Fold these 3 entries.
Entry 1:
Amino acid sequence: MAKTLSFTDTSAQTVKIGDTTTSFTLICGDDNGATDLTNATSITVKLGNDSGYLKSATVDPASLTDPTTGQVTVTFNADLMTSLTAGSYAIEVWVVDSTGTSIYPSDGSTGFTITNNIQSANGATITTITFDDFVNKFNSLTANVMSKTIDTTNFQKRKITGDDGHAILQVNFGDDFYKKVLSLGLGFYTFECTDSAMNKPFDSAWTRGLIFIDSLDSNNVPNAVMIHATDTNGTFYSCDYHNGWTINKQIKSTSGTLNLTSAFSGTLNYVLTGNLLHVSGYVSPSANLAAGTATVLFNLPSSIGTIAESVAVVQQSSGWNLYCLAWSPNGAVSVLKHNTAGTATAITTSTQLQVCADILLK
């Protein structure tokens, strides 16, 4: 028969170091039925762990409340707890009667746990301070990371922008941009450059951006500079300095369709890159255009820009005939027909005009 050993439903299964009043109540059984301990002459409870046997305690058979239930109670008194540390343990019950010695359980062992009490480890005391003390200490700490405080080794406190939100480096009317940049030290800077500043990599437009300097020469002059900036026209600049400046410029482009006057039908598309307007497409007159007469093809919207100069260019129409496309600063772009000999002739509604021109804007 298999011998079993289990805790009663109400029994403790854990005891803390220093507790000498906790007891475990165990049930000795055979094939999960309670063992009658009425004829027991001695009962010994033995403890061990992974290292092996540790110690034991005896239980007087006469102290059993009801031997027929197989219940054995062991109290963890001071003698039993001595030298036991926190951890997992195994427990067995050895019962001797007239037939011999029975060991419960017959397979493996039953486990219990010893845990530390609150005094098993020394804690740290908590220092109390007043609210005013806390505020003063906080102000002291934050003061060290603000600008205009005493420098600490390898501790940068330069502001990215001014208190008013403007850039740290201001390049104003007549200022030399490159000279100002090469007067800076190591670090990261914001800058604003007016359209009237001198010696700059930017077009004549207000520009702002970032400067990063990560190397100085033996005279403490920057020899490794990176600049990223954007002007009010949307042009992006990427500039690098290493024994000379390298400038890359990406001009902002927009595109769309132009509205023709009622004198023409068709489609004209445009691409605006910086101040250069490229116009292309195919159009036909809505009615025959009189020879030598300039007829407005489209008026340039002010939202796109203003034409900078008066220009006339030769364009091609269907049948390899030529015509002129002309524009002026008033914003009108017009069509005038000539034949290959230069004589003015009419443009009929069956004529398809190919338009391809670049117009300079202010």
Note: DSSP finds three helices and 24 strands in the chain.
Entry 2:
Amino acid sequence: MGLRIGLLTPPIQKASVVPLSSFINIFSQFSDVYLFCGENSRDSIEKCDNVRLHPTYIKANIEHKALLKIIWFLYIQIIYGVYVLKSISRIDVWIFVIGGDRMALPMMIARLFKKPVILSLSGSAVLDAQLSNDPFLKPAKALSKFTNALSNFIILYSPNLITFWQLGKYRDKILIAHRHFLDFETFTATTPLATRPPLIGYIGRLSGEKGVQHFAQALPAILDDRPDLRVLIGGDGQLKEAIEASLQEGGVISRVNLPGWISHDGLPNYLNQLRLLVLPSYTEGLPNIMLEAMACGTPVLATPVGAIPDVIIDGKTGFIMENNS
């Protein structure tokens, strides 16, 4: 009997489906994978043979009403906790991914039954809550500390994240993922940079931690200086209406394309139109969109956060901005 992995993620947004698929594709090559996820993750396992799906049928997000958020959070903890308890004898190792640092009850149950727990951190729940003005910042901090302490190992994309996410006290159990995976048949340069239209853009979640609001606020000054320039802001999120209002107020909305959510299949086409991708984030792990843009021959301008400085060397492999003002 081979290794049996329990891969657990809370209900995720659309942008996280591809990273989850990558986890599944890797682990399913050498083990049986039991996937505990939201119903919207079903598409991630269509091509995998060694995966058993345990969907929770819970939405990835809810309205921003405090009471509903509390009820929703407690509900998913209990549902996932029950799943872990029922499956505990069938699984050798538990791996918590993509928001798994908030899943305190399921992790605690796994540890009570002496199962190894690995926590893979692709982002910081604390910084995301802080930068999105989430009223549950204090609970996010408490949960993050609890799950970081409870896990046997923590996987990060870069040593830089140990300091950036204030994980120094867990240094002895931190492992660094030195290799990253990209489909170069899908993400490739099909349009030479010199023949592309004068188009710059942002693609990603429209939320506070991404800094996209500052990009939108800067556009009137940028576009006033470059009458030929056009802009793409692709994605969806809680700041969508505020960004549209900012562009309208700045008188530049007619020069900005707002296509909304861009599917992963559609990304190569958009990236091959851009002269520059702008990532003004406050916090990142290792943004897939940065690697995908570079594979498409698109230069990237980004803030020096997370693992970005491991990839972007200013003036050589891309451009680093000092801040996102």
Note: The mean pLDDT is 88.
Entry 3:
Amino acid sequence: MNKIDAHQHFWHYHPARHSWITDEMAVLRNDYLPADLDKELDSYEIQGSVAVQADQSKEETQFLLDLAHNFDSIKGVVGWVDLQAVDIERRLATYAQYKQLKGFRHVAQDEPDNNFLISAAFCNGIGLLSGYDYTYDILIYPQQLEAALKLVQ
């Protein structure tokens, strides 16, 4: 049976882009790339990982897709796309060429509106994901649970 690390972040550390890394998490203020992880995966007989976005940008998604292209240990990518974009269907169709892309994530925790997840534009984007066989990884705070429940219903 294959063992996969289902949630792994890779980055070239940048203080502004990774401002969420507090002093208590200072160990994360370094570059972390697949070559660093591969030796750890091997030592625990883990066959690969899923790279998950840590920055909400199309550049981050492309960075992860490029890593997946160059490192066999990356078995899938959960990227970011603006699910509220007017041209979201075109964007999803463009991403369909990347077989390692499995889904998307939006850091809803950072949204000031607790009902962000059930806004019409966001729901429209979410509704299009299944047509491309994409998943959505939800990331919320407890006060957003009610909206998350409505979203999945």
Note: The beta strands are 4-8, 48-52, 74-79, 101-107, 135-139.
